[in-house]
Amino acid sequence: MQRGVAEDMDMNKDNDPHRSSSPLCKRGAGGGFCKKAAQGFATRADLVILALTLALLPYLYISYWGDAVQGEQARILVAGKEFAVVSLHDEQRLSVPGALGSSVLEIRAGKVRFADSPCHGKQCVHSGWLALGGEFAACLPNRISVQVVGREPRFDTINF
Amino acid sequence: MARKIVHHPPCVVPRHSPLATRHCLLVFLVTFLSSCGKAPEPLYQEQILALGALIDITIWGVAPDAAQQAADQIAEDFNHIHTTWHAWKPSPLTRLNAHLNDTVAYTPEAELLPLLAQAKQLSLNSGNLFNPAIGKLVAAWGFQGDEPKGPPPDAKTVAALVAAQPSMEQVHLAGNSVQSSNPAVQLDLGAIGQGYAVDVAIAHLRKLGIHNAIVNASGDIRVIGKRGTRPWRIGIRDPRGPGIIASIELQGDESIVTSGTYERYFDYQGKRYHHIIDPRSGYPARGTVSVTVVHNNATTADAASTALLVAGPAQWQRVARAMGIKQVMLIDEQEIVHIDPLLAKRIHFETKTQPRMKISAPL
Predict the structure, then answer these.
(1) CA distance B233 to chain A (A)
(2) Do B24 and A43 touch (CB under 8 A)?
(3) Less CB within 10 Å around the terminal CB: N or C of chain B?
């Protein structure tokens, strides 16, 4: 099956019926079918389908695996209001102004963490890296929270 | 990253057949339309910074504005409970503490009474290992403060506070009044406040006609109903480091609460002191890193997770039975997972290598 597809794809590339210069495929031959096709490789309809397949591939790729490319996001709240939603694949250090001062959020390789915060206990910093959909951490004194959000998180919520 | 090529078998085999073409188009249309026609799920999720807690509220199957209104009301509940039970800022609880030893029994705000009664019963069931009467010890360790940082109290102070044996047995609840027969008693409901607030929030949601939801207050969780056709999926954070140690599916009406030594602590002169004080020694409990309890009621689960952490690897089963707790996972300082067979059956470990496990007798 896989081999069949590969052959047909080659056909499409090399033996496009609209490229009349192709020695293998003459327009009009075989009652509307490509000559090569008439010999048993592919019909014009097959070629249309293949063209559609190729055209659809980028769409399907993005729609089904797009998240893996774009990654999940971090939703940052300040005093309960949305401050920013950032991709976990844009490496950056983000300074977020809170009640006490600025907390620094570090984003690297699909993860986010509190790198620094003006609170004393640094519990937010001790929470470490968050990567899974639903994971969250907060600096309560500075009233800043961050949650990892994805289209279909593995967990609905996290116990700790 | 997964790289996949989509194969549509009908496109490859019978050639020249218009039927095959139609099949192919069908396959494409179905693929295409199914991926663009997904209806948004009736799932509402909101994070609220209430006083003292980060609350994660998830509601299924309710219109977004109704869900948001419910979430706002729950945030108010949390703020109210926080200010009512605050152990070191002026509150109904600090007023009660100031009057605990009055010769004429004190009548506190009526809303304190139900939880005080519940806390007393839980404390007695736990053999005083969950002991909300040790407010003086908690204060001596600096855990009645926003930023505990040491130094630890000296041994004499600790010994004196333990010798005074404050316990809930000496807290007498009669009608609307509260009186302690031991001047060493000071109430600190910190160990169950969060679980209690979660229970109040769930009761509130139900009153609003919401029957599928999760309330998660700083990790203490109660779920009701389901997420559509499937149970709620809960990840349990690994107490030994970043990531998730295990997952569990909950539905109907269940709580999962974890107490851990990593939640609140201070380091002093190279030594770590955590916030769960063993009422028997007066020092932070030793031997256990975390205890996770699954139970229907979050207040009970919260009290039990504290009591079982204090009980430690040798005594947790006895204390769990005394408190009517059936599902427990305890992780000790050697990173051995002690678990009862009921919870072991339904929990799924998410770590690359299965942790060392000790499955107990049924509770």
Answers:
(1) 5
(2) no
(3) N
